[in-house]
Amino acid sequence: MQVVECRGKLFMVDCGEGAQLQMRRSGLSFNKMGHVFISHLHGDHCFGLIGMISTFGLLGRTATLHIYAPKELEDMLNRQMQMFCRDLGYEVVFHAVDTSRHAIIFEDRSMQVETIPLDHRMPTCGYIFREKPLLPHIRREMIDFYGIPTSQINNIKAGQDWTTADGEVIRNELLTTPADPPRAYAYCSDTAYIPTLHELLKGVTTLYHEATYADDNLPMAQKYHHSTARQAAQVAREARVGKLLLGHFSSRYDDENVLLREAQEVFPNTLLTREMLVFDV
HSE (CB half, 13 Å, CA atoms) of 78? Predict the structure, then answer.
């Protein structure tokens, strides 16, 4: 389970067993969690969903919860909710995801979420969270110098110039500084190495890519449709992402730094993920 925070809103990616416990430990607000994205229907990615839905109801939630997942989950989830989650007090809306297509499946004023088709033993997709462009920053000293009223700030952010009482036009670029570049986070769940995957990841700031095995277990990776750390790094390098996060490690590795070193040989700006870690995208 991962939680992506963007401009005060929380988005959950996958929901394994114990997800709600981890949310409590992290201090994340249950009320701010409005959307859950499930990559595929293996238990470690969805077994925690029904328990979390039930807990939200017990806590008095009223806001709608949106679930995005492969269509096969809908019937199973409805049956579980009929058995365990009657009279929830809030609505759960299911959005069937076509894991074979790259498409925008969610959008609001601040961001959009896209699907990334992946190659696993069952229908699987990853997700890209793309921040929409921000407005430029106001230069406070210039606003004060020209006595520009607060009511005009939004117009200036939108690109307007300012005309003084004497008729002098103050160009917008003197009143603002460029906005921060929009960020993008890509989550590539369980998948075999896809040589063309980098084409969908251009412009991504931070990439999470599974790295179940090292090179010593390449046949296992191919057999079970997983990736090695080196393959994950190859994707990051070819996509020219800013940072690579590795996860989903096989328990056969007592020292996960083996995976880290292998990836860093290809893509130096690589980090290992662990429970409760927070990364700045």
Answer: 7
d(CA 40, CA 141): 51
Note the helical H segments in 59-136: 72-84
Q: Give the pair of three-digit tokens for residue 92.
A: 């759960």
Name residue 4's beta-bridge partners. 11
State the DSSP code for 163.
E
Range list of H helices, the chain:
19-26, 43-46, 49-58, 72-84, 140-145, 153-157, 172-175, 218-223, 229-239, 257-264
**Selection from 124, 119, 62, 128 nearest residue 97 by Cα:** 124
Determine the Cα–Cα distance for residues 265 and 168; give it in Å rounded to an integer. Answer: 58
Cβ(43)–Cβ(17) below 8 Å: yes
Q: How far apart are CA 98 and CA 118, in angstroms?
A: 11
Amino acid identity, residue 171?
A: R
The C-alpha atoms of residue 162 and residue 148 are separated, in whole angstroms, by: 8
216: amino acid identity, one letter? D
Distance CA 153, CA 240 (A): 36
Strand-pair partners of 93:
66
The residue among 36 and 166 whose pLDDT is bigger is 36
Look-up of token digits 């114990």:
18
Prediction pTM value: 0.90
- Supply the mean pLDDT for the chain: 95
Dist. CA 137–CA 176, nearest whole Å: 5
Query: Which residues are catalytic, by number?
Result: 44
Q: Quick check: 99 and 116 in contact, CB under 8 A?
A: no
